[in-house]
Amino acid sequence: MYPGIEFPPKRGEINIRLMNSVDLDAVTAIERDSSPSPWNRSLFAGCLSASYFCLVAIADNKVIAFGISSLVIDEGTIVNIGVEVAYQGYGCGNKVLRRLLENLANENASKVYLEVRVSNQTAIRLYRRVGFTQTGVRKDYYSLGHTREDAVLMEKKFL
Ligand SMILES: CC(C)(COP(=O)(O)OP(=O)(O)OC[C@H]1O[C@@H](n2cnc3c(N)ncnc32)[C@H](O)[C@@H]1OP(=O)(O)O)[C@@H](O)C(=O)NCCC(=O)NCCS
User: Fold this and answer.
1) Which atom of ligand 1 has the smallest separation from the CA of 30?
2) How far apart are CA 93 and CA 147, in angstroms?
3) How far is residue 84's CA from residue 26's CA, in Å, rounded to a whole number?
4) Which single residue of 26, 29, 116, 137 has CA 20 to 30 Å from 58?
5) What would be the CATH architecture of the domain defined by 15-157?
């Protein structure tokens, strides 16, 4: 234990709201620090201008997580989700994901797809927990610097 540092640290209440352009720097920083192949700012800006459903989670007066989904006809996709490293493991990813799914259900999606790195067991566990099942593997889907990694394809049916 270090003086003045609580372990586990206390975390404030989490509130979720729609993302807007003032959040882009914070969201890009979360992505940069938490993903091995991070999206850049313009990809997030593109999601906002394409009217994807984009959320941020706020705690301790700052953006600590984001989630993005899209919907084409009745097929939803979890496009990206990320939680600031210091706030991971406290249920925030679960909360953001459930809000994305709630919105897709309200928009009459019949199923939702996503892809996730095969080694990302935390995310895979989270997705299973909310009802996603694995439907396939896409070989060498992700480029990680000099290496590549397979994607696990997952699906959740609403109907
Ligand atoms: C994946 C991610 C979004 C999950 O969000 P989170 O807030 O950390 O996760 P939660 O606290 O909601 O926990 C979700 C599940 O993962 C488990 N989990 C969380 N952190 C974990 C860890 N470090 N090791 C193992 N399991 C962990 C939790 O126990 C929980 O499972 P349970 O409900 O069976 O107990 C987050 O860790 C993250 O941003 N990771 C980096 C970016 C990323 O991988 N995004 C997904 C791209 S597809």
Assistant:
1) 39
2) 27
3) 9
4) 116
5) 3-Layer(aba) Sandwich (3.40)
Tell me how far apart the alpha carbons of residues 2 and 45 are, in angstroms, rounded to a whole number: 40
Residues 6+ apart with CB under 8 A from 151: 115, 116, 117, 118, 137, 138, 141, 142
From CA 58, how far away is CA 107, in angstroms rounded? 24
Q: Going by CA atoms, what residue is nearest to atom 48 of ligand 1? A: 116
Token readout for 138 is 């896409």
Torsion angles phi and psi, residue 79, rounded to 5: -85, -45
pTM: 0.91
Measured by CA distance, the residue closest to atom 14 of ligand 1 is 126
Query: What would the pLDDT profile of 45-83 be if each residue is shown by its tens digit?
Result: 999 999 899 999 999 999 999 999 999 999 999 999 999
* Mean pLDDT (the chain, rounded): 92
